[in-house]
Design a protein that fits this description.
The complex is a heterodimer of chains A (134) and B (302). Chain A is mostly helical and 134 residues long. Chain A has eight helices and no strands. In chain A, helix 1 (12-22) packs across helix 6 (88-100). The chains are: A mainly alpha (134), B alpha/beta (302). Bound molecules: iron/sulfur cluster (2 copies).
Chain lengths: 134, 302
């Protein structure tokens, strides 16, 4: 995903929603990149975790279509390392919820084969469905 | 010591050996873990949305069950259950308003008083029993066995609920020293295994399994030791898929901390249940002379 960041696209409604759902103050972030540097999912992401914050700060709704927010594994590495006390894992969750709360699933549960369902432990299925389905 | 035990779903399924070895090892160390008569899934992941009270109900119900059975302490083994329940425990303890709202919503249950304390079993070994005591009870020292502890995410993060330092934990290392195993310190021991992506994006997990398992192996580990059934699934069974994708990949066994402890305490194979893992741990246990060649395990000779 290509993110175009510009002050003209600022949409304070997105920022307000994300701040409300996450309970985090996004303006505390000074974009040092420490969260991105330690993120285990980084190699497959289409934009860096701190770029997600930037996009929300500027109100760019395209961030809702980024792969990054779904590749986040809620590992809390960013949360414990941020020098500004920003919990990015909560911001990622808020962005996922903006889609899920519209009753839109990110995965198709019925695409799982019987073989996969038999093999996967409950802990994998429940956690995945909690994160990826509405 | 006597306390309630909350198992969680996977310990009754793929993680059965985690439970059997834990209960037997705890008993050998004079910890009586009474399984709750009724319990429900904790929800596995803690909701990261603010004020999301609805998602605290599952852990709260379990705390009500603990309270109903007259306990004020409950222990769990699974890292994800620990994380989800501990965060809920703290939220309702710190915020009487939230506790009241949830109690009113769950009007058919008795009111939760917010007094139950949740422990992870590793904490009980460290804080209640003590490593010196464990050392004294060791019958079969795991001398020569090189073990790489793997923490993953949920035991040490976030800070408020971590059972140890989030960057430099040592709780599993210390347990290993007490049972005379050799600790292999791996820099990736706190890296995420890919968690629930194993359901819809297996290739993300195999990439991480390859990295984490290879790193431990390169440092000489005979096996990896952990505390989470989801990490176990990803680092053990997913080695099958990793080997298909990366032909040069060579794996090592993955076991639960309770299994090595039970083995060291001289407990038998029917509780250790090493046979339930995808990568068979027996060959390396025999090679390291922990289990004798020809010793009967599950009706076959090791
Ligand atoms: S570590 Fe914190 S301050 Fe630095 S970029 Fe990430 S969220 Fe912003
Ligand atoms: S919580 Fe998400 S964004 Fe933060 S380090 Fe983990 S995977 Fe990356």
């Amino acid at each position: 995903m290509k993110l175009r960041l510009s002050v003209t696209t600022t949409n304070s409604a997105l920022l307000a929603k994300v701040e409300e759902i996450s309970g985090e103050n996004l303006s505390k972030c000074y974009h040092c990149g420490k969260c991105s540097a330690g993120c285990p999912s980084l190699t497959n992401m289409d934009c860096l975790p701190n770029q997600v914050i930037r996009a929300v700060q500027l109100g760019d709704e395209k961030v809702l279509e980024s792969e990054t927010i779904w590749l986040c594994a809620s590992c809390f590495t960013c949360a414990v390392r941020c020098p500004r006390g920003v919990d990015l894992s909560k911001i990622m969750e808020a962005l996922r919820l903006l889609t899920l709360r519209k009753d839109v699933n990110h995965i198709e549960v019925k695409e799982l084969t019987q073989e996969e369902l038999d093999e996967l432990p409950p802990i994998a299925l429940v956690s995945n469905f909690r994160k990826m389905t509405s | 010591m006597n306390l309630a035990y909350y198992p969680g779903c996977t310990l009754k399924n793929q993680g059965l050996g985690f439970e059997t070895s834990a209960l037997a090892a705890a008993q050998a160390l004079d910890i009586e873990m009474k399984e709750l008569d009724r319990w429900n899934c904790c929800g596995t992941v803690f909701s990261l949305a603010d004020e999301d009270l609805m998602h605290y109900l599952a852990p709260m119900r379990n705390f009500v069950r603990v309270q109903e059975e007259g306990f004020d302490k409950v222990v769990t083994l699974c890292s994800m259950c620990y994380n989800t329940m501990k965060r809920t425990e703290q939220i309702v303890k710190d915020d009487p308003e939230k506790l009241k709202t949830i109690n009113e919503f769950m009007y058919r249950e008795e009111d939760y008083r917010g007094e139950v304390k949740l422990f992870h079993l590793l904490e009980l070994f460290r804080d209640e029993i003590g490593y010196e005591e464990i050392k004294k009870r060791v019958i079969r020292p795991l001398r020569g066995l090189k073990v790489a502890p793997y923490y993953g995410c949920m035991l040490t993060r976030p800070k408020e609920i971590g059972i140890d330092d989030w960057e430099e934990p040592r709780i599993m290392e210390d347990l290993l020293s007490a049972i005379d195993a050799e600790v292999v310190k791996d820099p990736l021991r706190g890296e995420c295994c890919g968690a629930y992506h194993t359901v819809n994006a297996k290739e993300l997990v195999t990439e991480r399994t390859r990295m984490i398992v290879s790193s431990a192996k390169k440092r000489g580990a005979d096996c990896i030791m952990l505390s989470c059934p989801l990490c176990e699934f990803n680092l053990d069974l997913r080695q099958r898929d990793t080997a298909k994708e990366y032909t040069d990949f060579v794996g090592i066994p993955v076991v639960y901390f309770t299994q090595l402890l039970a083995l060291a305490l001289g407990l038998t194979e029917d509780v250790c249940r090493f046979d339930l893992h995808y990568i068979d741990p027996y060959p390396v246990l025999v090679e390291k002379n922990i289990i004798e060649e020809g010793e009967e395990v599950h009706g076959k000779k090791a």
